[in-house]
Amino acid sequence: MSFTVGQKITFLHEQGEGKVIEILGVGKFKVEDDHGFERICLKSEIAPVYSNDYKINDTTIAGINEDETFSTSRKAQQTKHVGAGKQGFDVWEIDLHIESLTNSHSGWTNTDIVRKQLMELRSFVKRARAKRIRKLIVIHGVGTGVLKEEVREFFRDQEGVEAYDASYQEYGKGATAVEIRYNL
User: Fold this and answer.
1) What is this structure's pTM?
2) Is the same domain home to 85 and 128?
3) What pLDDT tens digit does each residue of the chain (184 aa) get?
4) Does residue 79 belong to any structural domain of this protein?
5) DSSP per position, 16-56
6) Would you say residue 89 lies in a domain?
7) Full residue range of the structural domain in which residue 43 is found
8) By C-alpha distance, which of 14, 5, 63 is closest to 34?
9) Which of 9, 33, 119, 162 could crosslink 46 through cysteines, CB 3.0-4.6 Å?
């Protein structure tokens, strides 16, 4: 994900927002927080804000900070091994529909939902990379396209990763295929 001067951001590991006021180098930014204080942030500590209702709450922060706290059975329900693809290697699939990720999302804002979905995506990709899985299918649905864009943005700056529309025959317009190349 790339940031530009003036871009509104949210902090991933704490509450609050800000804006990028200077790009200091690769993955390093000077940010003015919503209290007017300037600070240096790494790319991994911030996320872009695309709308006015993109807020993060205490529950979401706790979830981000405790990324691996979900039960194995819950992860097993959302992650599906779909077997070997045409290339002869394993393909993993994840359904990011919020109903697949949590038992209840009552009272959550759209931002809370997207945060949860992206947190699950990060955890899924981390597990896939640990197992050197070369192809992923990320089911994000069609909707307004916000989640699809966030998924594509997540993969855009990752080296050795190609993301593109998944098979229309299998998934319609609601999924992204991801291929990961590993160095030997």
Assistant:
1) 0.56
2) yes
3) 578 899 888 877 777 788 999 999 888 999 998 888 899 988 888 887 765 444 444 444 444 444 433 333 334 334 555 555 555 468 899 999 988 888 888 888 888 888 899 999 999 999 999 999 999 999 998 877 889 999 999 999 888 999 999 988 888 889 999 999 998 7
4) yes
5) -EEEEEEEEETTEEEEEETTS-EEEEEGGGEEE--STT---
6) yes
7) 8-48
8) 14
9) 9
